[in-house]
Specification:
By secondary structure, the chain is an all-alpha fold. Among the domains are: 149 residues, Alpha Horseshoe (Leucine-rich Repeat Variant); 63 residues; 127 residues, no CATH class; 154 residues, no CATH class; 154 residues, no CATH class. The chain is built from 54 helices and no strands. The longest helix is centred in the middle third of the chain and has 40 residues. The chain is elongated.
Length: 1114
């Protein structure tokens, strides 16, 4: 828990304190379950327990919609749904977060947000409809909701099945919300539909909402019949259409037709099992629809379709509407038709003149079938296709008068809706009325002709009826011919009169130009009207046309138009990026001369590329102000799709990529631009390479990684290699170059001394390329010779990781060791040391180091890394030089030889010398080659490794040293140190001392001195050895160690008389302090076979009977 979180005791806590505590815990929690749990607590408290706190903490909760964890963002979507349902007036504050969650990259979050959107739309419309006055906040919210609907409509084409499913369910809710319910259906208390929207509500007119619902219904039917729809989406859409048909019977006909088309044309992408599932679902859907009263008139069609799907006859009969329902439905239709006819009669009745009024019989209205005109309307509407409509128009063009008639101007009312079904019904109604009128006129005309024929027959009974009709027809033809001639003559006379006074119409004579400010103002108003018509363009399917108009205006018209369109784009750059890209392409076309400027556009006074530069950089700046992950996606898309990337735009991208808070998206974009834009490749590569020397490691490492990936491309490898070598060469300079400094490099202040940071800036890319191109190692050696001492130290520290990755088998590393440049010895030594630190040196490496040491470089430090690869003779020969080095280096040498430098690596240790041989070799070093003090320090380092030099090893060493002639100077020192480390060696040491007496140890003063000290330290065990000394040497030893005399005398006094008899009198005199008697040398030492000596040795062995026998003596 973060210590900054303030906690109060439970008794002191207020409601808001608990909420603050939960929010703080959620913000610092690392586990998703903790975050979600705290958010759930806040949700329960501020929505249900204390709703007054919702407004206070709403923004804090919505901040979690930007959390990295998808489950947390899903929890926020649920919070928005519940908060909007309980307090709709808070919806305006939550819409932006909801829009962001809908377009979330995680499908689970997007699906949860889509479910929330349906509830939010319903709550928002209910809130707006129930408000007394529509506020500006409501208008803004409704516009955002309209944008949300457009966005979700587009998501019906998403690549994710689940997202498409939720989008379908949302559109289902929109249709039910924005249409009128069935009057016969029962209405629940919480139901809300189009009839609940006030007629006076301006921002959401009933007619527009209904048109939008009809359009969405068409989209659903189109999606339902798509050939590439998945089985899951198809069954979901089928269920939505069935629900709409039951709750909104006005769509029943279209939905049943859609289901019929589906049965006949299933999507070809479905597998056999999916086809079976879809057909089963279709059968269940049709059975459900058949039970609904509104489907009575389609019952026979549905029954036939169910039979084709394999439904059982009893299931069909069970679902078939009952006779009572059929009679009830027909009665309702007849009543509706009668009511409609009564209304039409009432509207079309003409008031008669007073003098013509006569008492008329009152007609008795009886139930009747629909009139002929109604049947004709249905007949025409069902068969009126686009081709027939076109033929009707073309055939009727010859009958269209030159001028519009007065009756047409007075009575014609254009159809205001854009719905094709409504327009088709209106046209069918007009055509059916004309057909009926034409039939009535023809009947009247036929009656008149028959009367005329009867009159001719009465006047001339001798002719037949057929002759009378033919004569009547010839008369009519003659009359028509006369009328045509008269009309033609009148027309020619009119043309002749008009030819004399025809005058060409000139607009300049009848009009006057508008002032520029009025013209500009009108143009701006028109553009603003186009900008506000986004939704209309989407519903009308002319989005591309609208975008083309706007981009053309923006690129070629005056600055006021450009400013208005640019402001419109930057207000919502997320959804209007396509428009901005279209504008960019138009500006590019003008820049390249592919397109001419319009005469309405002002002549630019700036450079040709300035308008393009300004637009591109403005778009980059606008996107940079966006918070969230959309920002990086939009920047990437803008740079990838822009036709030209100018220098200011490159600088802007360089600034973005040098911000560590932006992540690696900008860096990755630079890499993509290097690959995708060959003409600007060097510019983008240079920007990316400049970041390889950045001060901040997160930027530097990311840039190096991307440049190394680009190094694998043949067309870029040479350029990158030259750049790395160039920056490596900067290390030769006494001071860092100015190119390493600047705000874009993370070093605003210029420094005069090389530091680790500036050295890394020059060396980072080069070291990263070493693994890809090992030959570059020679460049480092050449530059190393000219570096200052401080830079060399930093370089030696930085090369460890790259060199280790190369391995000692690298041919280039071996070549570098073989041809070491003069002055680069320390670098080569460091490289060899790194290679052999955790593994044994290879034969090739040892051979090259040996040759280098023997022929060119006599520095023994070269041999240290490969000691384990040398021969025993070579190691022993180099020991005098090695132990003269720094104590730390000497310890490293012994660690390598003894195998203690890499105990944890798991690699078996191999050494040319054993620990015993190493210690023996140290005792044999000539003091003329190394001082005795240096040798003593070296042996002390060996004794410090107790896990190596065990008592067995030391026993072997003492055994070998004791057998040498002359005895090594440090023999007794080693004996004393061994005894100090392992007291159990006392018996073995007594044996050594006895054998040293036989070798007349007193003849070597240094060894003799050590012998006496050893005896002094090992008393009383050493008394038996001391008694074996000649009297003269005994006296000398007692003089060198006076403390021995008294304990030795006490020891002898304890002997039995027979034991004392074996001690020479001269020895007793020396012990007792009497004047010694001179004796011949021949009798100074008892021979090895002397009884006394054997007795003493046996006594010594008996004294150490509890100790283990030393190695070699068992």
């Amino acid at each position: 828990m973060d210590p900054r979180i303030h906690r109060r005791s439970e008794s002191e806590k207020e409601p808001c304190d608990s909420v603050v505590e939960w929010l703080n815990e959620a913000s610092v929690a690392t586990s998703e379950s903790s975050k979600i749990g705290n958010i759930a607590k806040v949700q329960e408290f501020v929505i249900h327990k204390d709703p007054q706190l919702l407004d206070l903490y709403l923004d804090d909760v919505l901040q979690f919609s930007l959390d990295r964890n998808a489950d947390v963002r899903k929890a926020i979507a649920g919070f928005i749904e519940e908060a909007g349902d309980k307090q709709p007036d808070k919806i305006p504050k939550m819409l932006q977060s909801l829009l962001r969650l809908i377009s979330d990259d995680a499908p689970a979050v997007s699906k949860r947000a889509l479910r929330t959107s349906g509830r939010i739309l319903r709550s928002a419309l209910k809130w707006i409809a129930s408000a007394a006055n529509v506020t500006q906040e409501m208008e803004i919210s409704w516009n955002e909701l309209s944008t949300l609907k457009v966005q979700i409509i587009n998501m019906i084409d998403s690549d994710n099945d689940g997202i498409r499913t939720q989008a379908v369910k949302f559109l289902e809710g929109v249709v039910l919300l924005q249409t009128y319910p069935d009057p016969e259906s029962t209405k629940k208390s919480d139901d809300f539909s189009l009839e609940d929207v006030p007629l006076t509500l301006k921002i959401a007119r009933r007619r527009k909402l209904e048109e939008e619902a009809n359009h969405i219904m068409d989209l659903l039917i189109k999606f339902h019949g798509s050939p590439h729809v998945s089985s899951v989406n198809l069954m979901t859409c089928m269920g939505s259409l069935a629900l709409i048909a039951k709750m909104r019977p006005q769509f029943m006909s279209n939905i049943i037709q859609a289901l019929q088309r589906l049965q006949n044309d299933l999507p070809p992408t479905l597998s056999d099992s999916q086809v079976t599932s879809v057909r089963k679902q279709l059968k269940l859907t049709l059975l459900g629809l058949m039970k609904h009263p509104a489907s009575i008139e389609y019952a026979s069609v549905i029954a036939k379709q169910l039979t084709q799907l394999g439904a059982k006859e009893q299931d069909i009969l069970k679902a078939y509407p009952k006779q009572e329902d059929i009679r009830r439905m027909k009665k309702r239709q007849q009543e509706a038709a009668a009511a409609t006819a009564a209304k039409r009669v009432k509207l079309e009745t003409i008031i008669p003149l007073v003098e013509e009024c006569e008492p008329l019989p009152i007609p008795i209205i009886a139930p009747k079938q629909p009139e002929l005109i109604e049947l004709s309307e249905t007949f025409i509407a069902e068969r009126l296709s686009v081709e027939i409509a076109a033929d009707l128009v073309m055939d009727s063009m010859t009958w269209v008068p030159d001028t519009m008639t007065a009756i047409f101007q007075r009575e014609y009312q254009p159809t205001v809706t854009s719905d094709n079904g409504v327009q088709r019904q209106a046209i069918a109604k007009l055509l059916s009325a004309q057909i009926k009128q034409a039939k009535a006129n023809k009947m009247k005309k036929d009656i008149k002709e028959e009367d005329a024929v009867m009159e001719d027959l009465i006047k001339n009974p001798t002719i037949t009826v057929a002759e009378a009709k033919r004569e009547r027809k010839r008369e009519k033809d003659r009359e028509k011919e006369k009328e045509a001639k008269a009309s033609l003559e009148a027309h020619e006379k009119t043309l002749a009169k008009a030819r004399g006074r025809v005058k060409v119409l000139k607009l300049s004579e009848v009009t006057k130009p508008l002032p520029k400010d009025i013209k500009d103002k009108g143009l701006l108003v028109a553009v603003n009207r186009i900008l506000k018509s986004e939704r209309s363009a989407v519903f009308g399917g002319v989005t591309a046309v609208r975008s083309k108009i706007l981009t053309n205006f923006a690129a070629t018209f005056n600055p006021y138009i450009k400013e208005a369109i640019l402001r419109y784009i930057t207000d919502d750059i997320r959804t209007r990026l396509d428009l901005s890209l279209g504008w960019l392409y138009d500006e590019f076309a003008l820049l390249q001369g592919f397109q001419r400027r319009t005469i309405l556009g002002t002549k630019p006074h700036e450079a040709p590329h300035q308008a393009y530069d300004f637009l591109l950089c403005t778009l980059v700046s606008a996107i940079d102000l966006i918070q969230g992950k959309d920002r990086d996606l939009l920047v990437s898309r803008l740079y990838r799709e822009a036709p030209l990337i100018t220098e200011p735009a490159v600088e802007a991208l360089k600034t973005l990529s040098s911000d560590e808070t932006r992540g690696f998206a900008s860096m990755t974009l630079l890499k993509e631009l290097v690959i995708r834009r060959p003409t600007k490749r060097s510019i983008f590569l240079n920007v990316l390479q400049s970041h390889t020397g950045h001060e901040k490691s997160i930027i530097r490492d990311a840039a190096i990684e991307l440049v190394v990936e680009l190094y694998g491309r043949p067309e870029l490898s040479k350029v990158i290699e030259e750049y790395a070598v160039l920056y490596l060469g900067f290390l030769r300079l006494p001071n860092p170059p100015e190119i390493l400094f600047g705000s874009d490099r993370g070093r605003p202040q210029i420094e005069n001394q090389w530091t680790e940071s500036t050295t890394r800036a020059c060396l980072g890319l080069y070291l990263a390329l070493l693994e890809k191109h090992q030959e570059l190692i020679h460049e480092l050696a050449r530059v190393y010779t000219s570096m200052s001492a401080d830079v060399k130290r930093i370089v030696l520290r930085l090369v460890e990781s790259p060199v280790r990755s190369l391995g000692m088998a690298s041919p280039q590393l071996l070549a570098l060791v073989e041809n070491c440049p003069k002055g680069a010895e320390t670098l080569v030594t460091r490289i060899i040391h790194i290679l052999t630190e955790k593994s044994a040196p290879s034969v090739e490496l040892v051979a090259r180091v040996r040759e280098l040491y023997q022929t060119r470089v006599s520095d023994v430090r070269f041999l240290i890394p490969v000691l384990n690869g040398l021969t025993k003779k070579e190691v022993i020969a180099a020991l005098p030089k090695l132990i003269k080095l720094n104590p730390i280096v000497v310890k490293e040498v012994f660690n390598r030889l003894l195998g203690t430098h890499n105990n944890d690596s798991g690699i078996p240790h191999t050494s040319p010398v054993t620990p015993a041989e190493l210690l023996i070799a140290l005792h044999n070093i000539d003091t003329s080659k190394a001082e005795l003090k240096t040798i003593i320090k070296a042996t002390s380092l060996c004794f410090a490794e107790k896990q190596v030099y065990t008592q067995e090893i030391l026993a072997v060493v003492m055994q070998h040293l004791m057998e040498m002639n002359p005895l090594p100077t440090l023999l007794m020192r080693t004996v004393i140190q061994s005894l100090a480390l392992y007291p159990r060696l006392s018996g073995f040491v007594m044996n050594i001392l006895q054998r040293l007496i036989l070798k007349q140890v007193w003849k070597q003063p240094k060894v003799w001195e050590g012998f006496v000290k050893c005896c002094e330290r090992t008393q009383p065990q050493s008394f038996a050895v001391i008694l074996q000394l000649p009297a003269q040497q005994l006296a000398e030893s007692l003089k060198m160690a006076p403390g021995l005399r008294t304990p030795l005398l006490a020891h002898v006094e304890l002997f039995a008389d027979n034991q004392k008899a074996h001690i020479p009198q001269s020895i007793m005199d020396v012990i007792q302090g009497k004047q010694p008697i001179d004796m011949h040398d021949d009798f100074d030492i008892a021979p090895p076979g002397d009884y006394a000596a054997e007795q003493k040795i046996e006594t010594t062995i008996e004294m150490d009977l509890s100790e283990p026998a030393p190695p070699g003596l068992d």
